[in-house]
Request: fold
Amino acid sequence: MSDVMVIGIAGGTGSGKSTITNRLKECFGDDVAVIYHDNYYKAHHDLSYEERAKLNYDHPDAFDTYMLVDAIRDLREGKSIVCPVYDFTIHDRSDETVTVKPAKVILVEGILIFQDPELCDQLDIKIYVDTDADVRILRRVVRDVKERGRSLDSIVNQYLATVKPMHELYVEPSKRNADVIIPVGGYNQVALDMVIERVRAHLNMKNT
Reply:
């Protein structure tokens, strides 16, 4: 178990989680595998698009978190996993899957990964990316319009109805479970360099 380091990267929507995840992946390549909690959103094939659009995707119950916990355990044991793929443009899990191979470092990214005690137990280092709410909502608007085909009205309605209240109820309180809190998201170069050095030290230890 000690041969594999599992790092959790949490924070609110648009906080900069993916920036840090991508930087680590760029630095260490195949030594790092990434799992996104978003891909473990529950499937709702039985509902219409309109019904799916009204669901609360920011509540812990929206995820098949137990599947993610099992996936991390398998990766720790050196097994490849078959990860579901979530399609945000249709608010549903797609028919595609992605195979994730085991690696020396596993990155787990998601807004609510510090909220579940069983999942927290699987994370060796827990990093919370803390970014101002105004910055986060602006980033979310740009992302959802450009990448997910959402209308501005739908983004605003979803933010006010579920994203903001669920952040205050679940995401923000989960910050207390973090080992490291990084202000200003992925643009905090000092903090990012410290995380990179911690990962490098782990990899160097395993290579000696």
In short: The two ends are 17 Å apart (CA to CA). The helical segments are 17-28, 49-53, 65-76, 117-121, 133-148, 152-171, 189-207.
